[in-house]
Amino acid sequence: MTIISFDTVPEVLRTMADELASELESAGQIIAIRDLWGRVRFIVQQRPAPGTGLELALQRLAVESADRLGGRAYPSEDAILFADETLTDTSLMANEPGLIIGTDRPVFRLIDRQITGQSWATVSEHNAARASHRIAMYSLKGGVGRSTTTAVAAWHLARLGRSVLVLDLDLESPGLSASLLPTSSQPEFGIVDWFVEDAIGQGDAVIAHMSARAPMAQDLPGDVWVVPSHGADPGDFMAKLGRCYLDLPGHAGVEAWDRRLLRLLSVLEADKAPDVVLLDARSGFHDLASAVVTELADTVLLFAIHSEQTWSGYRLLFEHWQRYGVAERIRERLQIVAALIPETDRDAYLSEFRERSWGIFRDHLYDELGAGEVDGFSFDLNDAPAPHRPLPIYWHRGIASLGSLTALDPQLVAATAGGFLAGLDELLSSAEGAAP
Question: At the fourth CATH level, which superfamily is domain 126-434?
Fold first, then answer.
């Protein structure tokens, strides 16, 4: 018996789409829904008239899917749903991520019903008119100096006279805010508290009590405001954390939790009017990370170390964006960061790092240009600036041993993150130059 695995379903559907394309032409695009268990059924806009060619084609589709997909399909009698009979509004699915399946014309659109991970396949429109510029600090794994670099970036921008808002969005592993704020300066509430209070309509009441000025900026021309994961007294943090990812009912339907996060950020921006927002995101493929990377950020700094684990992870992410047709919408926001560059053989390390970085950007995000073509989103290995060309952060014992980030040594920062900060300034200057 041949087992149809989860990953082979699209290819089976593609074969069926090509074989049935002419017979199903009058049905328009058919939505294939893959449920939480990975089984597929189809939604057609309306039931065809009895005895028509389309009715026979849909019957064949039901039988063929049950036969070819096996346990990945619904029984033939349950395989087809009609939107007009089930009161299904297919227009609501228009913005959901999906795979277009069919060689000659889009016969099927495969939509996955998932418990988590759905938002990695959707990318929000970039809002160039917004006053603040949002930068996501993202990594696949922890321990790469991401939070420390966030603090260094905030300090650097404040030295240049910018107002900076820092959000500690690594909710499951909070720590940045504790490094930036002494215990006496911690605000009463944090992001987790806001989610819990917002669920019963009290979110606005805590906004004024969930941010604090960082001491590192007290003598600088700019400012650094920190919004922690939790307040000065965390309380029953675990019980509150489990309620952060709730979708809430509202007058206009259900407000997804990531929309709630966007609402929180918008309110904080209106309150503090920052020039730059630094979003310290959770590492890995968690939904909170995807919300920060694909929904909130204008620029996404991808922290990486030169290891097979890192490149394999970013390849998975880039392939996902490419597969769901959103690569072109996010690729201009990305910038790779070479974190924890070792103290020895730095030139060789960076050369190998750059080549691996370029390889996955080239294969999944850059345009493939033909001979003589110059227009397109494409960069050669040694082009600068380029998304694949790393902003460097050098490992240094002095930075690694810092327990508190309330004060920073300019010489130490220059030695470790000088190249990174110069690249950050260029990114912000480019973004400001492109703003209307």
Answer: P-loop containing nucleotide triphosphate hydrolases (3.40.50.300)
